[in-house]
Amino acid sequence: MIRRRLRSLQIGMHWFPERQGGLDRVYHELSRTLPNAGVEFDGLIAGTDRSFQETGGAVQAFSPANASMPRRLLGMRRSFVKYLKTHNPDLLVSHFALYALPVLDRLAGRKLVVHFHGPWAEEGSFGGTPRIIIKAKRSIENLVYQRATRAIVLSNAFADMLAEEYHFPRDRIDVIPGGIATRRFAVTATPEEARQRLGWPLSRPIIVAVRRLIPRMGLENLIAAAAIIKQEIPDILVMIAGRGSLQPLLAAQIEKLGLGGNVSLIGFVSDEDLPYLYRAANLSTVPTTALEGFGLIAAESLAAGTPCLVSPIGGLPEVVAALSGNLVLRSPAAEDIAEAVKGALQGRLRLPDDLSCRTYAEKHFDWQVIADRIADVYRRALQ
């Protein structure tokens, strides 16, 4: 049966090439893959005209990303009203509750689907946001989610959160993991060739972690684990890629523990080098301590053929457990990270090989596979 094409208007946050957030990456990839699944993608985001130029006008900016909140919200409403004068979307899709709020009264009977990328309000509590702001954000989330016909979440952990904390009906929640460009990460280089490209030592055991340097990412535990690992594997090298507010504190911890030759904060890694970073490592790890709805980095690492050890937090186990239960750490504590890494490097902990990792990632996380599943949810929302 040939399905008719749907037209969707997707409210995003930023355009990924301009801002490097996980939500923005998902939005950007869906703009490219949903049309192949039969869903036309029109979008509104905060940013410059770059999205307009790169999508032939399909995705437009309603205001600059750095504009004041009132200006952004007013810009969103005006752009939405203007869009409806020339377009008739079948479905409205929200990826960010704040920007959907100004148009809730203009849906005109259209169905709304929300992508729940995480608890926007709760995430602020880890950055010292005042409680009154957190409560206001939660109220906005609730207002938007109450209007939604269906919700798409990244993991069962987030499905439980949306149902229990936001009181969204569980039978209207669809669990679809995040996607990755599996071909981009499946580089043909050997680990040795990848290390040569990056200028890394060829003979040392290397662990990589790609994380924002912010609280809840568990990087302090990873550095502490390196001190434990070093006692048995003196040449261990931990490469931490990313930027963020914790950089000075992490650097001080590395110095205090005498790990200057074992742990490196390598900063931002380009999209071009990222597949080679994973490929160059013996292992990658995601040691998050809280609020991890999916674990995109774990999927990327697997697509590059490198096994990834993840903490048993949120949706992380769901990314890797079907491939191997040995990839799930006992806890994000330094001792448990160290024990798993030592076991893997010394041959006591059996992990999947590169082909198994790549095949698993392609089957479960390739973007077109994910886009097809999301398109099915959109169609069910219209029934």
Characterization of this structure:
With 383 residues, this protein is α/β, with parallel strands linked by helices. The chain folds into two domains: 6-179 and 366-381, 3-Layer(aba) Sandwich (Rossmann fold), CATH 3.40.50.2000; 182-364, Glycogen Phosphorylase B (Rossmann fold). The chain is built from 17 helices and twelve strands. A seven-stranded parallel beta sheet has the order 3-2-1-4-5-6-7, with helices on both faces. The chain has a five-stranded parallel beta sheet with strand order 10-9-8-11-12, with helices on both faces. It starts with 5 loop residues before the first strand and ends with a helix. The mean pLDDT is 94.
Topology:
Blueprint lengths: L5 E6 L10 H12 L5 E8 L3 H5 L4 E5 L5 H18 L4 E4 L2 H4 L10 E6 L3 H4 L7 H16 L3 E4 L2 H10 L7 E3 L6 H4 L5 H8 L7 E5 L8 H12 L6 E5 L5 H10 L6 E5 L6 H7 L2 E4 L9 H8 L4 E3 L5 H5 L13 H12 L8 H12 L1 H15 L2
Helix pairs in contact: 9-12, 10-15, 13-16
Q: How many domains, as an integer? A: 2
Low-confidence sequence ranges: none
Q: How much of the polypeptide forms β-strand, as a percent range?
A: 15-25%
| CATH class term of the largest domain | Alpha Beta
Q: What best-fitting shape do the alpha-carbon axes yield?
A: globular
Helix count, DSSP H or I runs of 4 or more residues: 17
Strand order of the largest sheet: 3-2-1-4-5-6-7
In total, how many beta strands? 12
Average the pLDDT over all residues and give the rounded result. 94
Largest sheet: 7 strands, parallel
What is the CA–CA distance across the termini? 16 Å
Structural class: alpha/beta
